[in-house]
Amino acid sequence: QVQLVESGGGLVQPGGSLRLSCAASGTTYTLAIMGWYRQAPGKQRELVASCTSGGTENYADFVEDRFTISRDNRANTVTLEMNNLRPEDTAVYYCNARRVVAPRYNLWGQGIQVTVSA
Questions:
Q1: Whole-angstrom Cα distance, residue 118 to residue 14?
Q2: pLDDT, tens digit, for every residue of 26-74?
Q3: Which of 8, 25, 60, 89 maximizes the CB count within 10 A of its CB?
Q4: Per-residue confidence (pLDDT) for residue 21, from 0 to 100
Q5: Which residues face 114 on adjacent strands?
């Protein structure tokens, strides 16, 4: 079964840290871009960070060096370390895997809540 399963969200105080993990299975993830998106209430889903299978990382401007994405190609996992979290980081975070060569796909996890609040 092709799926992305997220874990690690929760409630944290401003300035705190969280680690999100995504386990991918069911297809080949070689040459796929894997990453994290988020969607806050009333807002569009937006890219947080992504990583190619070759290790090239891309971050949204709002990350400001607070988050780090990492990827294990052998285990088919992608992790997002989030530090110095702010209330505006509160959102549902989604793992994504996208492959533009055959087999093509654009996969989403079920989403995991991150809440930053005192």
A1: 6
A2: 888 888 999 999 999 999 999 999 999 999 999 999 999 999 999 999 9
A3: 89
A4: 98
A5: 10, 91
Question: What is the rounded CA–CA span in Å between residue 118 and residue 115?
Answer: 10
Q: Which two tokens stand for residue 34?
A: 């894997």
pLDDT digits (tens, 9 = 90+) for 87-97: 999 999 999 99
Element (H, E) at 77: strand 77-82
The first and second tokens of residue 20, run together, are: 């999100």
C-alpha 61 chain-centroid distance: 15
Length of the chain: 118
Residue 101 tokens, joined: 């060569």
Q: State how far the Cα of 88 lies from the Cα of 52, in Å rounded to an integer.
A: 27
Closest CA to 29 of 56, 2, 60: 2
